[in-house]
């Protein structure tokens, strides 16, 4: 007799639908579609010749080792490069505070697995990164979302809800720099206020920082991790990835936290991915130590700033503003957030946009509960400059025609 597989799945996985963004990508195979959907950095910013050089050196000098199993917590050479890298950002950590991950998504997975029992509470911004939501959902928590404000997390609302809760949330998850999906940056005051909440209510803060160094204008604001250290605290878990500053294909990142948390995350890593490939880690070490980080980041910033400007100028020129649409103007990162009148369901609009040969991510996937339906996320880093202008024209026509129907 054939097995009825659905009856074999674990309770949590039975209802687990996977990564919501992934499902829309199957509509993007048509090469004529200009996609503003993915979170891809531009391959123009890959340091191709430096990567080739480092790769050949690794293969020639150390082939036997780089294709071996290696230590679960990470390569000491990469850990040491990360310690130096973080010093530039006012963060002082030792190797016991770092676990190398197989990228940011893995860092989030380790966090969810370590802290969450089914039905535990977590608090997140509304909207927030869909990949974090899906990764935490694997543990089946109850998600409390707090609407974002223009200058970041709504700390007053966090406080108000916390006062009413009977149970303590396990953590608060935030992306303070150029948040995915909104591009919003959380102000210094609000970062401090989040820390106040953390101390007062005894709740860890998970700070996810993939875009931190991709600032195109304005002054850098200290990370919540650094602010916590200045207060001699250890309440923050930092989640980092090399995906947006080096390349996503390498799948390497790192988490930083109190040594006990890191030890536990290492134990979990031993049970899920074991070691992160040494070749990939060594390439990241080369990225940090041999590939002129500052020069590379300046290049990235100039390149993405220009694309953002072109996108914003095209929106001003072509997008129907009289309908009450508005959009964020990020100071960095890879995304911005367009809010349309409440009558427009952007999931429906997505399928219409495909006919206009343009794609975005419908905003509803960025909510852990009670999704808001009239927003869309735009990625401006991947399409070419010419494509960005054309994409805005197509999107504008799509929205105008949608409203005529
Ligand atoms: C806020 C945030 N965290 C984590 C990740 C995951 O990064 P990675 O691709 O390195 O797994 C992303 C990727 O888009 C992100 O935007």
Short description:
With 405 residues, the chain is α/β, with parallel strands linked by helices. The protein folds into two domains: 5-47 and 295-404, Alpha-Beta Complex (Aspartate Aminotransferase, domain 1), CATH 3.90.1150; 68-292, 3-Layer(aba) Sandwich (Aspartate Aminotransferase, domain 2). The chain contains 14 helices and 13 strands.
How would you explain this protein's 3D organization?
The protein is of the alpha/beta class and 405 residues long. It folds into 2 domains: 5-47 and 295-404, Aspartate Aminotransferase, domain 1, CATH 3.90.1150; 68-292, Type I PLP-dependent aspartate aminotransferase-like (Major domain) (Aspartate Aminotransferase, domain 2). The protein has 14 helices and 13 strands. The protein has helices spanning 11-14, 20-25, 48-66, 76-87, 104-115, 130-137, 155-164, 188-201, 224-230, 259-272, 278-290, 293-318, 346-355, 385-404; strands spanning 34-35, 98-101, 121-126, 142-147, 171-174, 205-208, 236-241, 253-256, 326-327, 335-339, 358-359, 361-362, 375-379. Strands 2-8-7-6-5-3-4 form a 7-stranded mixed beta sheet, with helices on both faces. The protein is globular and about 60 Å long. The mean pLDDT is 96. Bound molecules: pyridoxal-5'-phosphate. Pyridoxal-5'-phosphate is lined by residues 39, 103-105, 129, 131, 175, 180, 208, 210, 241, 243, 248, 253. Pyridoxal-5'-phosphate binds at residues 39, 103-105, 129, 131, 175, 180, 208, 210, 241, 243, 248, 253.
């Amino acid at each position: 007799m054939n097995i009825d597989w659905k009856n074999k799945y674990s309770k949590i996985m039975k209802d687990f639908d996977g990564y919501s963004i992934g499902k829309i990508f199957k509509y993007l195979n048509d090469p004529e579609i200009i996609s503003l959907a993915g979170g891809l950095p531009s391959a123009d910013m890959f340091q191709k010749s430096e990567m080739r050089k480092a790769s050949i050196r690794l293969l020639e000098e150390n082939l036997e080792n780089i294709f071996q199993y290696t230590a679960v917590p990470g390569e000491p050479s990469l850990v040491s490069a990360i310690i130096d890298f973080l010093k530039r950002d006012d963060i002082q950590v030792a190797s016991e505070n770092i676990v190398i991950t197989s990228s940011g998504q893995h860092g989030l997975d380790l966090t969810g697995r370590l802290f969450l029992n089914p039905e535990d509470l977590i608090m997140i911004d509304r909207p927030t990164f869909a990949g974090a939501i899906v990764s935490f959902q694997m543990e089946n928590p109850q998600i409390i979302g707090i609407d974002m404000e223009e200058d970041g997390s709504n700390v007053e609302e966090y406080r108000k809800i916390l006062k009413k809760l009977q149970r303590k949330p396990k953590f608060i998850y935030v992306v303070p720099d150029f948040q995915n999906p909104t591009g919003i940056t959380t102000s210094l005051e609000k970062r401090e206020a989040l820390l106040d909440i953390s101390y007062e209510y005894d709740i860890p803060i998970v700070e996810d920082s993939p875009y931190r160094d991709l600032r195109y204008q304005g002054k850098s604001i200290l990370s919540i991790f650094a602010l916590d250290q200045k207060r001699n605290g250890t309440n923050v878990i930092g989640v980092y990835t090399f995906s947006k500053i080096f390349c996503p294909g390498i799948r390497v990142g790192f988490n930083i936290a109190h040594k006990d948390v890191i030890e536990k995350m290492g134990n979990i890593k031993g049970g899920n991915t074991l070691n992160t490939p040494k070749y990939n880690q060594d390439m990241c070490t080369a990225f940090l130590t041999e590939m002129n980080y500052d020069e590379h980041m300046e290049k990235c910033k100039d390149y993405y700033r220009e694309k953002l400007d072109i996108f914003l100028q095209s929106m001003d020129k072509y997008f129907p503003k009289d309908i009450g649409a508005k959009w964020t103007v990020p100071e960095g990162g890879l995304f911005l957030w367009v809010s349309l009148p409440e009558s427009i369901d952007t999931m429906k609009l997505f399928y219409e946009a495909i006919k206009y040969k343009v794609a975005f991510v419908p905003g509803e996937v960025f909510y852990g509960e009670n999704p808001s339906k009239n927003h869309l996320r735009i990625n401006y880093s991947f399409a070419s400059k010419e494509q960005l202008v054309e994409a805005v024209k197509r999107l504008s026509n799509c929205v105008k025609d949608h409203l005529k129907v």
